[in-house]
Specification:
Belongs to the LAMP family. About 15% of the residues lie in helices and about 45% in strands. The protein is α+β, with helices and mostly antiparallel strands. The strands form four sheets. Strands 14, 15, 16, 17, 24, 25, 26 and 27 form an eight-stranded mixed β-sheet that branches. Strands 1, 2, 3, 10, 11, 12 and 13 form a seven-stranded mixed β-sheet that branches. The longest helix has about 35 residues, at about 5-40. It starts with a helix and ends in a 5-residue tail after the last helix.
């Protein structure tokens, strides 16, 4: 006996409903993940935050931190430089090398590890009223192919910088806004950060010190006309020789004197300009060499970090200074942490294999607040043969300075020639007036 038509259609209808339900679910999932990707690309979504705690031998917390972090850097591959971004994963852990510090020997430090040998370290310091993250250090391992695919080097790199993360004693540092810390070729961005060191209990304080980014912008008021008051200009800085070497030998050879011009607001809200000479006798030199980037790092007792990045243009076969970065502390400034950087320079330029030389003083403008004066510079980057400078390419300033005495000499010679011609003509006419009859 044949089944009723409705009974025959019911399994088919259920099957169609199941297929449609499955398609709807797949479409929803695809749309949901596309929406999440859009949020992440738009900067509205960050990696998951995590809580990190450092305890002393008695089990009492001395550091607590809750934040998410994103990393931006570049590395060398066989096909050139590649930019990479990655987040601090949720499974990051606090290493045993973290410490609550010792009374006068060292400050507390938080060391967070993730991936294959990557660590982010926050080292704290304090005075009578405030504490701060005095130094942030990031160590990353280029052999981690998941983050750095096709890296031409398997080195472990270390970068570090001072920060503006600071808060009152017994208060929590709170910053909902993004806070970027620039460390050489690495930028670390903290999101929704809650940090406290030197805790008085095993929990965050309910009182907060908010970061500058979270504070509302003050209503602008007419300035009181504080004019920049330049400080006395010191003598010209000493000229020193700087070398940077890598696995393939010397990649940077330079002699120069360096001077910093910094404009800032002091604690009296007055704009001042100070000049600092880089003292070669108190300067530590470091650097690195890659196929397309040469880095010179200088540190001394005043300058926390002064970095020069030299790049190259393969098309024109020229090297040039492409970036200057400065991190230093100004004790009399309203904000003692001074940072400035410019990655779009094109100075000290010469053909690869040759050297650039300039005896005249050159002023390199980094930002409105910072310029670097370079004295008697002689530099060669990338291809340096036998630790000796190649053929010299003189700067335009030296050529102009040479033209001045040449022009003056030419003008004097022309004047003498005009006087001589006038004298000869006058003498000839005077003889013509006394001819013999």
């Amino acid at each position: 006996m044949a089944a009723p038509s409705g009974a025959r259609r019911r399994p088919l209808l259920l099957l169609l409903l199941a297929v449609d339900s499955r398609n709807i679910q797949l479409c929803f999932q695809k749309g949901f993940w596309s929406f999440l990707s859009f949020l992440e690309l738009a900067g509205l979504m960050h990696g998951a935050s995590a809580v990190f705690v450092v305890k002393d031998g008695n089990g009492t917390a001395c550091i607590m931190a809750n934040f998410s972090a994103a990393f931006l850097t570049n590395y060398d591959t066989n096909s050139g430089f590649k930019n990479v971004t990655f987040d601090l994963p949720s499974d990051a852990v606090v290493l045993n090398s973290s410490s609550c510090g010792k009374d006068n020997a060292s400050g507390p430090s938080l060391v967070v590890a993730f991936g294959r040998g990557h660590t982010l370290t926050l080292t704290f310091a304090r005075n009578a009223t405030r504490y701060r993250v005095q130094l942030m250090r990031f160590v990353y391992n280029l052999s981690d192919a998941q983050i750095f695919p096709n890296a031409s080097s398997k080195e472990v790199k270390t970068v570090e910088s001072v920060t503006d993360i600071k808060a009152d004693i017994n208060k929590t540092y709170r910053c909902v806004s993004s806070d970027q810390i620039h460390m050489s070729n690495v930028t670390v961005t903290l999101h929704d950060a809650t940090i406290q060191a030197y805790l008085s209990s095993n929990s965050f304080s309910k009182e907060e010190t908010r970061c500058e980014q979270d504070r509302p912008s003050p209503t602008p008021t007419p300035p009181v006309t504080p004019h920049p008051s330049p400080s006395p200009t010191p003598e010209s800085p000493s000229v020193n020789k700087y070398n940077v070497s890598g696995t393939n030998g010397t990649c940077l050879l330079a002699t120069m004197g360096l001077q910093l011009n910094i404009t800032y607001e002091n604690r009296d809200n007055m704009t001042v300009t100070r000049v600092f000479n880089i003292n070669p006798n108190k300067t530590r030199v470091n650097g690195s060499c890659t196929a397309q980037l040469v880095t010179l790092e200088l540190r001394d007792e005043d300058v926390t970090l002064l970095v020069f990045h030299f790049g190259m243009n393969a098309t024109s076969s020229q090297f040039f200074l492409q970036e200057i970065q400065l991190d230093m502390t100004l004790p009399d400034a309203r904000d003692p942490t001074f940072k400035a950087a410019n990655s779009s320079l094109r100075a000290l330029q010469a053909t690869i294999g040759n050297s650039y030389r300039c005896n005249a003083e050159e002023r390199l403008r980094v930002t409105e607040a910072l310029s670097v004066n370079v004295f008697r510079v002689w530099v060669q980057a990338f291809q340096v043969e036998g630790d000796k400078f190649g053929s010299v390419e003189e700067c335009q300033l030296d050529e102009n300075n040479m033209m001045i005495p040449i022009a003056v000499g030419g003008a004097l010679a022309g004047l003498v020639l005009i006087v001589l011609i006038a004298y000869l003509i006058g003498r000839k006419r005077s003889h013509a007036g006394y001819q013999t009859i």
